[in-house]
Amino acid sequence: MLGPAILAASRSDKMRRIVSAAPVTKPVVNRFIPGETVDQVIPIVEDLTRKGLEVTLDVVGEDITTVEQSHAARDAYLELIERLGALGLGDKAEMSVKLSMFGQALPGGHELALANVRPVVEAAAAIGTTVTLDAEDHTTLDSMFAIHEELRRDFPQTGCVIQAYLFRTEADARRLAAAGSRVRIVKGAYKEPAEVAYQDKAEIDKAYVRIMKILMEGEGYPMIGSHDPRLIAIAQELARAAGRKLDEYEFQMLYGIRGEEHLRLAAEGHRMRVYTAYGTDWYGYFMRRLAEKPANLLFFLRSMITK
Ligand code: FAD
What we know:
Helix content is about 50%, strand content about 15%. It is α/β, with parallel strands linked by helices. The chain has one domain: TIM Barrel (Alpha-Beta Barrel). An eight-stranded parallel beta barrel has the order 1-2-3-4-5-6-7-8, surrounded by seven helices. The two termini are about 25 Å apart.
């Protein structure tokens, strides 16, 4: 069971220092996080959109400890949005935001995160795009959903993420499957206790299907975040059964994972959005990708040995 151990390491400062300093880390990291700056990620966005894909951009850096860092995170998104707007990419690229990066875990964090995310949502709307609030560990979700509801009063297109592994999520899906809402369903990437989350992969997949059904039969806009071929096929079936046209839902996958499938779904006429993370503080994001597929860790370790 390597996954949980890697997720535990993703919270360790000592491991962060070791992994970040390892000379061979960079090429492996680049597979999932293809740039550190706006200048490096813009050509990636242009390349993806030329191929008929859409993009959601995540500036990595969830582990902040000061209010100043939360402001810097807000400013990084504002800079990104300004550049996308200048290039006319507003209709192709949206933002994914982790509220922890906007200060949610600091004292007074709920208000701070809301104050930081609001100008980002406003700026996104001004260039014709939107923001989706990522789901982090379960202790943060009541605050995330409250911020989502608050933002939707002025910007109803603001999206949020729900995680199939949590027991609470079916109820959240029912509440969110309303007209105009944009909801990304994912399996869930954090280490969660058995009191709140399914631990068994098959149970998580079954919950994912139940939740997709709620979203597809609802009145919102479902965003299917998964690389799992079975779930993608079931999503297509559920969409057909619910009478949805191809532009009434979308698929989303992570940059660097099953790239050929991104192109296949887009070629079939589906909306396909690639979640593209960039920035310097990539440790937490990178470790979650290793935890999802232990073969990634073996590849990483092998590259350290053969270097
Ligand atoms: P899995 O059963 O894990 O994988 C299915 C297949 O996909 C695997 O067999 C493998 O071939 C491939 N695959 C999956 N992951 C990897 C990997 N890391 N490396 C290589 N191949 C892989 N989680 C959250 O908790 N909160 C979020 O806000 C969030 N946002 C996301 C946004 C998007 C667009 C996506 C796609 C995922 C997001 N996740 C988020 C992560 C998600 O919760 C899962 O951890 C991740 O998607 C793996 O689950 P899966 O559905 O792809 O299925």
